[in-house]
UniProtKB/TrEMBL annotation:
It comes from Mucilaginibacter hurinus. Keywords: Carbohydrate metabolism, Glycosidase, Hydrolase, Polysaccharide degradation, Xylan degradation. Residues 179-291 form the Glycoside hydrolase family 2 catalytic domain. Gene3D superfamilies: Glycosidases (3.20.20.80). This is 1,4-beta-xylanase. One of its GO terms (biological process) is xylan catabolic process. Pfam families: Glyco_hydro_2_C (PF02836). GO terms for molecular function: hydrolase activity, hydrolyzing O-glycosyl compounds.
Length: 361
């Protein structure tokens, strides 16, 4: 937790790789890349909305981001149906992952599908946080037909983006073109709430090796200067170097916390020292004692946005806990994530009743 307290203070021993040395200097506080919003602008942006709450969303028919966005498997009907369930309980925000390979395969079609998705979400009065890069789960994404789910295993097919540690100039060039094209195309789109530039940088034991890409994506995004704010969510408190760059270059502070509400509240209170609006972009893991019933009311009292992992039980299998597979695929005694079953009925009616009450429905 000490790392959180030090995010806005001196950071020593920074070990960024050469590609980031123009921005991050060893032994000094990381430079804020020009273009960060003043805190006053960030608060004015946040205050125009009702309390932001919702879920990380992928349709139940997609195992990963590529299956969601590739032309052959883009499922507008399921997206429409499931975001309708979200609207009905008062959710007004979803967080959605993109993927660079889906863009590489078909840049024009990819952006058309993004626009189709946004039209559906907007119909349901739902704003979207789009995520660019991701260091979680499987490190070897491939274009084309995606794998079938492994029975009873959490996120067996989720795809990192880009997966490998980026060191080659040609890879940086490709990723820059992707980020720049998407941001430029949607930089003024009111249906988009926020751009989440990099999910959990340093995960899967990458640690500071993710620093060059982190710095680059911030730089590319600031060059486009979208009307929507930028953020990079904090998630692991011992990654001091990454945390500093993430927090000091975010217009709005976003973070992940799957702990019980007492521990979560301590993290939240420390992050408030940044003096910026806050959104928790991942929480709610029932067997970790992070639930709707004990955490969502606390987030609303603290005026922090609340986005839980998972909406509908589907091919991601995230009703199963991390690293605790059930090989026969039987239903876990307690679901880890998700709000709805595949037929739209709530997993737990009391949770849906609370969500509706918190949203005045």
């Amino acid at each position: 937790m000490l790392a959180v307290l030090l995010l806005a203070a001196s950071v020593t021993g920074l070990k960024a790789q050469d590609a980031a040395k123009d921005t991050v200097i060893k032994g000094q506080v990381p430079t804020i890349i020009p273009g960060r919003w003043p805190a006053e602008k960030a608060h004015a942006w946040y205050n125009q909305y009702k309390w932001l709450n919702g879920a990380d969303f992928i349709p139940s028919t997609a195992i990963n981001q590529l299956e969601m966005w590739q032309a052959d498997t883009f499922d507008a009907a399921t997206i429409d149906k499931e975001l309708g369930w979200a609207e009905n309980i008062g959710f007004n925000t979803v967080r959605v992952y993109l993927h660079s390979l889906a863009w590489k395969q078909d840049p024009k079609g990819f952006k058309q599908r993004m626009n189709s998705y946004l039209a559906i979400a907007d119909k349901h009065k739902i704003k979207t946080l789009f995520v660019f890069f991701d260091d979680c789960w499987n490190p070897d994404p491939k274009i084309g037909k995606q794998p079938a789910p492994v029975t009873g295993k959490h996120n067996s097919g989720w795809a990192q983006d880009p997966g490998y540690i980026v060191t080659k100039e040609e890879d940086f060039a490709f990723l820059k073109n992707y980020v720049t094209d998407v941001l430029t195309s949607f930089k003024s789109d009111k249906r988009i709430l926020l751009w989440d530039l990099y999910n959990e940088p340093g995960n899967t034991k990458k640690f500071d090796a993710s620093m060059p890409l982190l710095v680059k994506v911030i730089t590319w995004a600031r060059a486009v200067n979208p009307e929507q704010p930028l953020s990079i969510g904090l998630w692991r408190w011992d990654l001091q170097n990454l945390n500093a760059v993430q927090a000091l270059n975010s217009d709005v502070i976003t973070y992940h916390d799957y702990e019980d509400p007492d521990k979560h509240l301590r993290v939240l209170q420390m992050l408030k020292s940044h003096g910026r609006p806050m959104i928790c972009t991942e929480y709610m893991a029932r067997t970790n004692n992070s639930t709707f019933l004990n955490s969502m009311p606390m987030l609303k009292r603290e005026n922090v946005g609340a986005i839980n992992w998972g909406l509908v039980d589907g091919k991601t299998n995230t009703k199963y806990a991390w690293n605790k597979p059930i090989p026969d695929g039987s239903e876990p005694e307690v679901w880890f994530h998700e709000v709805f079953r595949k037929d739209g009925t709530p997993y737990r009616q009391e949770e849906v009743d609370l969500i509706k009450k918190l949203n005045g429905k």
